[in-house]
Amino acid sequence: MKFLYALGLALALAASPATAQDAEIPVGKTWEGVGVSWTGGGRFFVRWTVMEQGGKLKVCGAATGTGTGRYGMKFNRELLRVSEVQRDGKAILRDLRFINLVSSKNLINDLAGVPATCKVTSAAPNGSSNYAIISKTSKIRVQK
User: Fold this and answer.
1) Does residue 143 fall inside a structural domain?
2) Among residues 2, 8, 80, 134, which one has the fewest Cβ atoms lying within 10 Å of its Cβ?
3) Whole-angstrom Cα distance, residue 121 to residue 92?
4) In this predicted structure, what is the pLDDT of residue 10?
5) Residue ranges making up the domain that contains 113
6) What residues have CB less than 8 Å from 124, skipping those under 6 apart?
């Protein structure tokens, strides 16, 4: 097993709900962005937003990563697995592996315009715009 420690895993960011009808949409330039640096090199970057659809909240996002050698994709997927979207400090969606992982070549545009995948939650809009992505751990492990 190889250990890597994520720096800055307090991924709390505000995001404002919008209205959308499409299941897959391109990442917007105004979407929230958050990055994590791995010890030993490498970076992981996510752009995301929360939208209203049919009386429920929908989370959309795309992500990419660089470095960390042959383990990079495993670390990035594991980080998504142990992360959740919270509204006002309460989880509305756990396990973010549905987020579209794209080539690191898209970092040059901060992922703007790349296809984002979305997942509808069971949470209804409540007027809050206090959303955050939170990792439930600061240590990520993957098998060789």
Assistant:
1) no
2) 8
3) 7
4) 31
5) 2-138
6) 55, 56, 57
Judge whether 93 lies within some domain: yes
Q: What is the pLDDT along the chain (144 residues), one digit of tens a residue?
A: 333 333 233 333 334 444 444 468 999 999 999 888 877 778 899 999 999 999 999 999 999 988 766 777 788 888 899 999 999 999 999 999 999 999 888 888 899 999 999 999 999 999 988 999 998 876 665 555
5 Cβ contact partners less than 8 Å away, ≥ 6 residues apart: 38, 39, 138, 139, 140
Tokens 């070549």 locate to 105
Query: DSSP string spanning 23-86?
Result: SSEEPPTTSEEEEEEETTS-EEEEEEEEEEETTEEEEEEEEEEE-SGGGHHHHHHHHHHTEEEE
> Using alpha carbons only, what angle is made at residue 77 by residues 66 and 85, rounded to the nearest 5 degrees?
110
* 143 backbone dihedrals φ, ψ, rounded to 5°: -80, 145
pLDDT score for 16: 43
